[in-house]
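At this stage, I put together one protein's amino acid sequence and its backbone structure tokens, which the following lines show:
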Amino acid sequence: MTKKLRILEVNKAYYPHVGGIETLVRQYSEGLIRDYNADVKVLVCRDDKGKTLRQRINGVDVTRAACPLRISKCPVSLKFIRLFRKMAKNADVVHIHMPFPLADAAVLLSGYKGRIVLSWHSDIVKQKKLMLVYKPLMKWLLNRADIIAAATLGHIHYSDYLIDHVFKCRLVPYGIDPEKYLNIKIKPFLTEKCSNKRSVKVFFTGRLVYYKGVDVLLRAFRHVKNCELFIAGTGVLEPQLKKYVQDNKMEDKVHFLGFISDAELKQAYADCDIFVLPSAEKSEAFGIVQLEAMIYGKPVINTDLDSGVPYVSLGGVTGLTVKRGSVRELAEAINILAENSELRRIMGIAAAERVISEFREKEALKRLYQVLSGEENSI
């Protein structure tokens, strides 16, 4: 019998914590157990200040280390470091999701000598003071790692930190399971909320934070005709964005949905006509939401970020790509697609085909397992 690969997944948080990387770590953990009979353990920090908690979630052993302190939103926990030292001893490979300064410190202080694979999800863009302290430690771990996994070439080429480590970088794309999206009963989730049922429905979902570019989207929407915008998500900018809508008397064409369930989110993707990801900073490194819209045959409008975002939905093929932060270009792109239903249909078909051919969960898991096990060494 083939020996099970023992994997320690290390991240800041885990399901039911809401976040793109957290969703990905859950997908990896459950998928590696299901498809490859791997022995997967997960080490993360608690979201609150409670004691260390051990759980079994959908067949995955999850340890949430007590975390009494956070600095610049980064967990600080001696318990996490002690648990890392203990759990890493029993792993064939440690898989760390970066950036996560506490994990870098845990590797250094534990003296762990085994195999390390880093998944590089994005550069730290905004927290410049944190980087003054963290950068030397991060560079040490990049040098220490055996392999660095990245979802697209954009992650590698546009990172400020991976340029010296290209030789150890490997492409491991993110993926989704199309069947989980297509095997649902479609309901007019957005249509029933429209002020005018004949409007073209434009959809955005994500946290309402600085790098998502929703402020740009709202300014652009002042110049958009015959469309209504639906915004799903919450965040620190929500009051400011709602005030902008009220001040500009746009309540009849802009609808804030707040937090919606996974089932409602799928209905929104299926019911929209255009999906928009107007992100303005490369903190948006991939945008899995693009895949979720594309599998339903929806054209995507994204931005020309120096990240993986424009590698997911291709400008001129599966949607349109505009200059980041450009109100004019974003408004023009929305109007072009809104006025041409045939173009939306053609790009939507190409979008769904791209997900199925390039971003299927099973293929992504296969690639990840090869990288974690050391079976695959080419980019």
